Amino acid sequence: MPPGVAFASGHFTAENIITKTTRSGDLVGVFHDEAAWRALPAGTTIYQVEMLPSPDGEGELFVGTTHLNPGRVGDEFYMTRGHFHQRREQGEVYFGLRGSGLLLLQSEQGEARFEQVSQGSVHIIPGNTAHRLINTGSEVLSALAVWPTIAGHDYASLAQGFALRVFLWEGEIQARGVQYG
Ligand SMILES: O=P(O)(O)OC[C@H]1O[C@H](O)[C@H](O)[C@@H](O)[C@@H]1O
Ligand SMILES: [Fe+2]
Fold it and tell me: Which residue, among 146, 150, 121, 169, has the nearest Cα to 58 in the 3D structure?
């Protein structure tokens, strides 16, 4: 039997799944409101990534699903750390499985834009584009991703953060530009 995905839960129906959990304490400096981040228990799960086992090497693909919990740090919605690929030219495809949120995309020049993620949405992330998932809903946001095994992750280039942040302000989902300096 080839591996499958259960649409209702977004979980893989396969054996030998590799799971990585990212907790609040792992996300140092990621959220805008540092005091609110400190107030959150460090063991709070923000997201989990399930991956199918995959061979490594040129031409091979990773398949993984990110399950991003609903919640906020202060007013800011839970989100993944986000990254460029180490191999900048390598792209990726996201596919929305459940929940609702935003895919934040940012060029190397710092131009940022969003795509709405919902069940069945397909997102083509071009090369040279940083990407982060943001859960703006009240359910778990799950999205399946396919990317080249050679792509790698570059987190350091985003140490200053993305150019846009998403908050719940006065009951509305609002994106705000961030001034760094
Ligand atoms: O690496 P993060 O920014 O924490 O995102 C978590 C994961 O999300 C997706 O599944 C990506 O395809 C993975 O490559 C990434 O590791
Ligand atoms: Fe990626």
Answer: 150
Give residue-wise pLDDT tens across range 54-91.
999 999 999 999 999 999 999 999 999 999 999 999 99
Ligand 1, residue 83: give the atom nearest the CA.
3
Cβ pair 179, 161 in contact under 8 A: no
How many angstroms separate the alpha carbon of residue 142 from the centre of ligand 1? Answer: 12
Q: Per residue in 117-159, pLDDT tens?
A: 999 999 999 999 999 999 999 999 999 999 999 999 999 999 8
Distance of CA 66 to the CA centre of its chain: 7
User: What domains does the chain contain, in order, with CATH numbers?
Assistant: 13-177 (2.60.120.10)
Pocket test for ligand 1, best of 83, 97, 105, 132 (most atoms within 8 A of CB): 83
H or E segment at 37? helix 34-39
Q: CA-based Rg of the chain, rounded to a whole angstrom?
A: 16
97 phi/psi in degrees, rounded to 5: -105, -40
Residue nearest to atom 8 of ligand 1 (CA): 66
Please answer whether residues 48 and 67 qualify as being in contact, where contact means their C-beta atoms are separated by less than 8 angstroms.
yes
